[in-house]
């Protein structure tokens, strides 16, 4: 962990603001501090951050879910940003000062400036607003991983009917759009208030939860010929049980949330938890395609709200409330 110097004699042009977690816990442990502006090394780019995405993953980092080593404090947060190149390292990286860019993954993206490996930096298309760009790649690469996992040795596409649990959420909305782009039919679970959002993404919404019929019965009514694959982004027993009921081949079911049940059921468990497939190479390879699709208007990022860096605790409290209807973006 880099030092967080507070020396007031350091020249202003060499200063930077950054968010750190001063301990493990809830949003109350987050603080904005002054740090030295980083200097790029070989193969690195210094990005002046114009927008950084706040993600639930970041909360897991500072909550202690991945460990609570006191020696790791203070923790820098934020893995995806958009902005402009402020400085490049040697040898040349393919980018020039002033280039608009997207970067993911980075370490410490909740900041005025952040270092990125050149391999993790992509040109920001002029058609893509910076706030949307900042929220594109983490959920987008996770969605791409889900689709690849249930592809049955190929890819989800024309002729497939795909059930997406949580189709209006961050990863679910990306998975819905990517499956539609590939020619699949998507049925997506959503609350009544979010069903228009699923339609706008190209999916067919279905309500989750108990009612006069079960979720499986409601899906069967929409797809009497069956469901080929299921993607779970919520982790509820209803989502998993419905997927098992409707999808004949368990290899075509994947989850990023049901860590307690997936291993014993023989379905794909994806992500960074115990026993899960992180899909590092696959996710990295998906980034350029995601940027191209977004630039062409075929992949949309819904932004719920944009807050200044100093309101990072409020941003994370909003994420934790479950009421965010899209990405929460921080502006340094």
Word description of this protein:
The protein has helices spanning 56-63, 130-134, 137-149, 170-181, 195-200, 215-222, 237-246, 262-265, 280-295, 312-321; strands at 15-21, 30-36, 44-54, 75-76, 81-88, 100-103, 113-117, 121-123, 161-165, 185-190, 204-207, 229-232, 253-255, 268-269, 303-308, 327-331. The chain has 2 domains: 12-136 and 301-331, Alpha-Beta Complex (Quinone Oxidoreductase, Chain A, domain 1), CATH 3.90.180.10; 139-280, Quinone Oxidoreductase, Chain A, domain 1 (Alpha-Beta Complex). The longest helix is centred in the C-terminal third of the chain and has 16 residues, at 280-295. The radius of gyration is 20 Å and the shape is globular. With 332 residues, it is an alpha/beta fold. Helix 3 (137-149) crosses helix 4 and helix 3 (137-149) packs across helix 9 (280-295).
Give structural attributes.
332 residues; alpha/beta; Quinone Oxidoreductase, Chain A, domain 1; seven-stranded mixed β-sheet; six-stranded parallel β-sheet; 10 helices
